[in-house]
Amino acid sequence: MAFNESTTISHPPQRVFEGLISQDFQQHVAEEFNASVDKFTVVPPQPAASDTVSVTIHRSVNGEQVAQRLPSAVQRFVKGRVNIEQSEAWSAASGDGARDANVTIKVPMAKATGTATIKLAPTADGTGTTVNVSGSLKSSIPLMGSKIAQMAEPQVGKMLTEMNKKLDAWLTQH
């Protein structure tokens, strides 16, 4: 099972991209999810439209705060600080401002890895951005890995959609 989510944001692709690679936005959204950003890098630090961009985000969350929201089969794996390591490889912008990213998210405690693609494309009228996110999740925990991935994938998709909604509101304020 995989996830596939689509959201429209009322800002052009360049602004959406700038928001997604903004440390301020990543810290804002982490706080909204009761997490912290422990490491954040963007290379190059001030990318031009013609640049490919690499982003690294390490977040952590208190496992006890999120365990009760997870299926019981997964709760026993969520103890202490749960680290989430995310890397993004963004393409250069196309002529209309569209960009794509390949994303890898690792949760070492759950022996889980998610892969996704993010596609930013201008809306037909050029004033907004359609954000398409698709991907899958795998866990290599013996006997439980496929069940964990199956239960977590819909939640990952919902979380990404919620993050995009928060991005739209954040961009309006900044």
What's the short version?
With 174 residues, this protein is of the alpha+beta class.
Please provide a written account of the structure:
- Helix content is 32%, strand content 39%.
- It is of the alpha+beta class and 174 residues long.
- The chain has one domain (2-173): START domain (Alpha-D-Glucose-1,6-Bisphosphate, Chain A, domain 4, 2-Layer Sandwich), CATH 3.30.530.20.
- β4 (81-90) and β5 (99-107) form a beta hairpin.
- α1 crosses α5.
- The mean pLDDT is 86.
- InterPro entries: DUF2505 (IPR019639).
- Pfam families: DUF2505.
Strand and helix map with partners:
Elements: E1 2-9, H1 13-20, H2 23-32, E2 35-43, E3 53-62, H3 63-67, H4 72-75, E4 81-90, E5 99-107, E6 112-122, E7 129-139, H5 145-173
Antiparallel strand pairs: 1-7, 2-3, 3-4, 4-5, 5-6, 6-7
Describe the structure using short key phrases:
single chain, about 170 residues, alpha+beta, Alpha-D-Glucose-1,6-Bisphosphate, Chain A, domain 4, seven-stranded antiparallel β-sheet, 5 helices, about 30% helix, DUF2505
